């Protein structure tokens, strides 16, 4: 599957600007981690999984990570993409456990990119470029801040990767700095 094919599929099921932006942020974050973790030859694959991970969320929020499998199978999408995208709903909506390091990264950064994005909006600069770990950690500890971003999922993702929460947050900030203003 090409990036263009993935984008066309995504936009067939998603119209909301927020969802499309989130998909692209996760795509670029996944591309960054592919390069950083030594999977540069799989960067496009990691990116496509990031782009499609919430394929079904806008139209089928009650069937999230379930309906997307059906949609992708009907389109003949590679089973590796289907498994990886669906695994980010592990212990939330599906019992498909992240196995590959890429799936664990997706699981960890999906919610975290949202929380970091919300922290960026609150900054006077409105930029990730001057964002520091301590600022995100302060927001992370505030339960009412970006309440839709599950701290439990973020921590579980860090644990799956064998990383500290600080390492996960710091590396994700660095990823976002490479493509966000």
3D structure, described in words:
The protein is an all-alpha fold. The protein has one domain. Helices cover 62% and strands 0% of the residues. It has 9 helices and no strands. Helix 6 (101-122) packs across helix 9. The longest helix has 22 residues, at 101-122. The chain is globular, with a radius of gyration of 15 Å.
Give structural attributes.
181 residues, mainly alpha, 9 helices
Q: Give, in order, the helices and strands.
A: HHHHHHHHH
State Rg. Answer: 15 Å
The amount of helix comes to: 55-70%
Tell me the fraction of residues in β-strands, as a range. Answer: under 5%
Low-confidence spans: pLDDT under 50, at least 5 residues? none
Q: How many extended strands?
A: 0
Number of helices: 9
Q: Report the span from N to C terminus.
A: 29 Å
Arithmetic mean pLDDT:
96
SS-derived structural category? mainly alpha
Shape: globular
Number of domains: 1
Main sheet summary: none
């Amino acid at each position: 599957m090409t990036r263009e094919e993935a984008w066309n599929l995504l936009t067939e099921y998603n119209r909301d600007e927020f969802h499309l932006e989130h998909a692209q942020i996760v795509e670029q974050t996944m591309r960054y981690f592919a390069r950083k973790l030594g999977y540069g030859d799989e960067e496009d694959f990691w990116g496509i999984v990031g782009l499609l991970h919430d394929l079904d969320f806008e139209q089928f929020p009650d069937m999230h990570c379930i309906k997307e499998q059906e949609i992708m199978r009907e389109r003949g999408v590679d089973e590796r993409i289907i498994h990886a995208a669906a695994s980010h709903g592990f212990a939330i909506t599906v019992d498909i456990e992240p196995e590959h390091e890429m799936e664990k990264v997706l699981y960890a950064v999906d919610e975290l990119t949202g929380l970091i994005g919300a922290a960026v909006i609150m900054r006077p600069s409105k930029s990730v470029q001057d964002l520091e770990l301590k600022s995100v950690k302060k927001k992370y500890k505030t339960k009412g801040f970006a309440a839709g971003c599950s701290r439990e999922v973020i921590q579980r993702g860090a644990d799956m990767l064998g990383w500290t929460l600080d390492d996960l947050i710091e590396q994700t900030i660095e990823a976002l700095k490479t493509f966000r203003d």
